[in-house]
Amino acid sequence: MLHSIRWRIAVPFVLLILASIWALGFYLSNFMANTYISNLRSHLTEQARLISNMAEPYINVDTEGLDALAKELGQQIDARVTIIYEDGWVLGDSESDPATMENHADRPEVVEALSGAVGVSTRYSLTLGYQMMYVAVPVVSDGAEIGVARLALPLTEVNAYSAHINYVVAIAAAIASALAIVVALLIAKVTTNPVRKLTQMSRRIAKGELDQRIHVSSRDEIGELAQTFNQMSAKLREMVSLISGTRDKMAAILSNMADGALIIDGQGKVAMANDAAERILGIKEEEMLSRSFIEVARDHELADILTRCMETGEQQSGQAETELDRRFLRMIATPIETDGEAGSLIIIQDFTEQRRLETVRRDFVSNISHELRTPLASIKALSETLCEGAIADESVARDFLERINVEVDKLGQMVQELGQLSRIESGEVAFNMEPIEIGDVIAWVGQRLRPQADRAGLSLTMEVPATLPQALADREQVEYVLLNLLHNAIKFTPHGGQIVLSARVAGDYAIAVSVADTGIGIPPEDISRIFERFYKADQARAGGGTGLGLAIAKHIIHAHGGQISAQSTEGKGSTFTFTLPLASTHSPKP
Ligand code: ADP
Fold first, then answer.
1. What is the pLDDT of residues 532-572, one digit of tens each?
2. What span, in angstroms and rounded, lies between the C-alpha atoms of 536 and 550?
């Protein structure tokens, strides 16, 4: 309790008031007692002088009369009257028999009175058992002190008087103290109220509730403190919002960066990693924290770049192909200061995809030139032969020109397919999605290619359930895919083989369409690549195709949200299957 300012203000205040009241009381009670005593003394002195005058004629004359006088006067003035002879023996006393009284010559007041002065003494009376005041004056006869007239009064009254004063002072002190406590507490409360408010606000601010303002109207030091507090909290708010704004921006930049960013602290441990770093390195940030970079990157070439950067204190960069998953990474390590220590900022770029695209582009160019070279070479050879004279022989010339025509058709088909592929890839082709009957498409494609199948000595059958629901697709594009697959099946199935076109519901959302043959099959190592453009399995090179058909088919099916795949056993046959979305899940029939 005493730790609070309120009490620290109130307690000294009250103590001070109490001390003042007690000091005043003490002084007053002393002062009153002294005044009373001094008044009493002069009063007693006057009465003693009167008694002295009255006693003077009796001394040395009538001792008994003197005692009677003392007794009578004692009764009248309500004080003890004693008349003492110059030798100290008591001649008359208002309260005792003088004969029984001891010699008073050594009493200080008596000694003093006998010397001619007024003797005053206050002491405890053994006879009476309380404080007494004695006032003695000489009894003078013919200029000589012949005795002493003494008056004595008990001081019990004085003490009672003092006690009363003390009592009054004590009551006053108690009332004043109570009032002082109340007033002190009120003052302390009023004074410390703003301080308490400030404390509450500070607590809230400490909890993070920065939107605090205190209203203090006083213009004193506390008012000034409150004002400063308000300014401080406003500044704090401003700074916090500035810092959090900057932090949010930084966090947004870091998490949306395509490049991985890591901060390595002074001990070489990961202190921060962004989303891209998690993705590229395949580890969550929590698992990276406090681990060394080599543990996280799991690649010596990358770790070396960081080591060089830390050793030289200069930016270092380099590339590496990761040992684990064969990805191409570019890394830049820059020395920075983190928490007062020398750390590093690492930026990692994954350019595996660029490398792949680069390879694809290079392969594409080389494939296309390869594909162009064969027909161009035969056209060249045929036209040269014609020029060299074969043109003169009409039947040879006709044959050559027909062959040139075939080559030109091949080139034309390639150009057309390339164009189609590029249009689909770039999204230029608008798909006309509508509910279609797959059974109809299968029937139509089968009908178109049946003559070819017959010529190749192949049996062609179709298996479509009567209840097959409609698919949501672009009919023309699906026809193209199916024609292509069936065309390949005819092309790669030897005489006497079988081809089955079928369709079925696959799961809740799709229809699966398959073209199965009993042909030459595809080597396992080629299966994953036959959907790439220009890719042809070795045996098929003689087939004379462009190698673009499956690539186009894949793009068309993907554009429908479906999948296309091939299963094959070399020498036994292949099955190509693609899926299309059900029309009912997209636009339910009424
Ligand atoms: P192409 O014009 O050469 O047929 P595709 O893209 O249609 O081009 O096919 C790519 C390659 O996939 C073919 O060259 C062939 O090697 C292989 N292939 C496609 N369909 C079959 C199949 N039914 N049986 C065996 N191989 C096939």
1. 888 877 645 445 677 889 999 999 999 999 999 999 999 99
2. 10
- Taking CA atoms, 23 is separated from 13, 179, 190, in Å, by 15, 18, 30
Q: To the nearest whole number, what is the mean pLDDT of the chain?
A: 87
First-last CA distance in the chain: 82
Ligand 1 atom nearest 539 alpha carbon:
16
Residues 345-392 pLDDT 10s: 999 999 988 888 888 788 888 888 888 888 899 899 999 998 988 888
Give the angle subtended at the CA of 429 by the CAs of 424 and 430, to the nearest 5°.
140
| DSSP per position, 538-582 | GGGGGG---S-HHHHHHHHHHHTT--EEEEEETTTEEEEEEEEEB
Region of 113 (left: φ > 0; alpha: ψ -120 to 50; beta: rest) is alpha
What are the DSSP calls for 135-161, one per residue?
EEEEEEETTEEEEEEEEEEETHHHHHH
Task: Give the nearest ligand 1 atom to 552 CA.
Answer: 6
Q: Is 537 in the pocket of ligand 1 (CB under 6 A)?
A: yes
Q: Show Cβ contacts of residue 298 under 8 Å, excluding neighbours closer than 6 positions.
A: 322, 323, 324
Q: What is the DSSP letter of 466?
A: T
Are 189 and 4 within 8 A, CB to CB?
no
332 sits in the region (left: phi over 0; alpha: psi -120 to 50; else beta) called beta
Nearest CA to 293 among 359, 346, 257? 346
Q: Are residues 581 and 433 in contact, defined by beta-carbon separation less than 8 angstroms?
A: no
Report the C-alpha gap between 218 and 227 in whole angstroms: 10
CA distance 479 to 447: 12
418, 549 contact by CB (below 8 A): no
What is the Å distance from ligand 1's center to 546 Cα? 9
Q: How many A from CA of 232 to the centre of ligand 1?
A: 77
Statement: the pTM of the whole predicted model exceeds 0.85: no
Among residues 479, 501, 471, 502, the alpha carbon closest in space to that of 580 is found at: 471
SS3 label, residue 389: coil
Check residues 9 and 475 and name the one with the higher pLDDT: 475
Instruction: Please state the rounded mean pLDDT for residues 238-262.
Output: 91
Alpha-carbon distances of 492 from 323, 488, 519, rounded to whole Å: 40, 6, 6
8 Å CB contact between 178 and 18: no
Q: Give the strand pairing for 564-569 and 573-581.
A: antiparallel
Q: Which backbone phi and psi does 122 adopt, to 5 degrees?
A: -125, 125
Q: What whole-number distance in Å separates Cα of residue 544 and Cα of residue 339? A: 68
> Which alpha helices (DSSP H) does 426-473 contain, by range?
438-455
Is 574 a pocket residue for ligand 1 (Cβ < 6 Å)?
Answer: yes
Ligand 1 centre from 454 Cα, in Å?
Answer: 20
Helix (H, G, I), strand (E, B) or coil at 26: helix
R_g of the chain computed on alpha carbons: 65
What are 82's two structure tokens? 């004693």
Considering only CA atoms, which of 25, 265, 67, 66 is closest in space to residue 165? 25
- Say how many Å lie between the CA of residue 572 and the centre of ligand 1: 15
Report yes or no: 573 and 516 within 8 Å, Cβ to Cβ: yes
Whether residue 77 contacts residue 47, with contact meaning beta carbons closer than 8 Å, is answered with yes
